[in-house]
């Protein structure tokens, strides 16, 4: 009987990616996509989004999971510091390390904090990490924005 993907993989991946970027935020305020927050008094912040996993079965109990990590960088416009958004983008870019470990993070009986596997950055694409600078999107809202995106894969054994 072929194995099945673990129903917890998406949650563990999301939690592990969030913790990874939290540890590498270098003083930046960090949010995860969809988190309720008030940013009007913040000078800058970043927001983490995880797309996937996109799961492919490669054997009876062998699964390949692909994910995309996108981090939105936001900085208030500042006539004294034109490079603020680029410094933030640099901090985020450096956080896209070659490996992100997946742990059983959470608060259920199955979440014993043990290592599940490792997300490995996919450098098989033309650009391993893609930075997009959006600049000032709306002149009535004085913020600059950019995003940093990376693609990762993991091979995990199913249940």
Helix content: 10-25%
* General shape: elongated
The CATH first-level class comes to: Alpha Beta
User: Do you know the CATH architecture?
Assistant: 2-Layer Sandwich
Number of domains: 1
Mind explaining what this structure looks like?
The chain is of the alpha+beta class. The chain has one domain: STM4215-like. 17% of the residues lie in helices and 43% in strands. Strands 1, 2, 3, 4, 5, 6 and 7 form a 7-stranded mixed β-sheet that branches. β2 and β3 form a beta hairpin.
Layout of secondary structure:
Layout: H1 9-23, E1 30-32, E2 44-59, E3 62-76, H2 84-95, E4 99-103, E5 115-121, E6 129-136, E7 143-157
Parallel strand pairs: 1-2
Antiparallel strand pairs: 2-3, 3-7, 4-5, 5-7, 6-7
What is this entry, summarized?
The protein is an alpha+beta fold and 159 residues long.
List descriptors.
159 residues; STM4215-like; 2 helices; 7 strands
């Amino acid at each position: 009987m072929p194995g099945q993907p673990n129903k917890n993989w998406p949650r563990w991946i999301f939690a592990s990616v969030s913790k990874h970027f939290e540890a590498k935020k270098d003083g930046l305020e960090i949010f995860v996509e969809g988190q309720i927050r008030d940013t009007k008094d913040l000078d800058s912040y970043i927001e983490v989004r995880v797309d996937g996993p996109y799961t492919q079965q490669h054997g009876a109990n062998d699964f390949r999971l692909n994910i995309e990590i996108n981090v939105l960088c936001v900085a208030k416009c500042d006539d004294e510091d034109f490079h603020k958004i680029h410094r933030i983008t640099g901090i985020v870019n450096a956080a896209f390390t070659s490996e992100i470990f997946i742990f059983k993070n959470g608060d259920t009986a199955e979440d014993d904090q043990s290592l599940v596997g490792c997300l490995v950055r996919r450098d098989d694409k033309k650009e391993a990490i893609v930075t997009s600078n959006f600049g000032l999107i709306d002149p009535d809202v004085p913020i600059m924005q950019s995003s940093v995106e990376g693609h990762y894969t993991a091979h995990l054994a199913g249940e």
